[in-house]
Amino acid sequence: MLPEYCQMALKEWAVTVRALAQGTQILLLRKGGIHETDKDFRVIHPEFLLYPTYEHQKQDLLKDNHQAELRQVLEEPRQEDQIRFTHFAKVEETIQVSEQEKVDYLGPHHIWTNEYAVSRMRWKPMQPLSILLLRVYSLENLVDVPYLPEYSGCTSWVDIFERVALGQLEPALTDEEFSRQVDAIKGCLGEPVAAT
Prior knowledge:
The structure is a single chain. This protein is an alpha+beta fold. Helices cover 24% and strands 33% of the residues. It has helices spanning 14-22, 67-75, 100-105, 114-122, 175-189; strands at 5-13, 27-30, 47-53, 82-97, 129-146, 157-165, 170-171. Strands 1, 2, 3, 4, 5, 6 and 7 form a seven-stranded mixed sheet that branches. It starts with a strand and ends in a 7-residue tail after the last helix.
């Protein structure tokens, strides 16, 4: 059962939010934000709004065939004093990975360069990388909320002061396509896949 409202949001590059929204990818790689409590990332909120961010996005950290999408995202008009929410996500599964080789296998399943994925793995090398498999949904209506200073900083999670109405949520992928991508990702990591 999906909720009607949400106040929790997860920050992610706007270009990555677009890829999730289009079903191009279903995963996120996380170890934590610079100002995270204890500097560790934890999935303390399994359902959340996708909060598109524009800082730190770098064209050279995206595969060549996705760099134009970043330019499009940056050219879209937006208001600096507003946050626009368009998508909601639910963590279907979290996989912990400690081997760089496994992260390399994920290459076909995301828009980032191998260098970006390597940098995620090497940061705090004693801590495993969390791979979040997300089911993403379009909000029924775009929702703009005022940007507040409390939302700033390099943290993953943001508690939005306003309750955001989700409306009738529409999945980015069909059940079959989502399952196919999950199985492909888990297969390349050597994880058990769903029986067919």
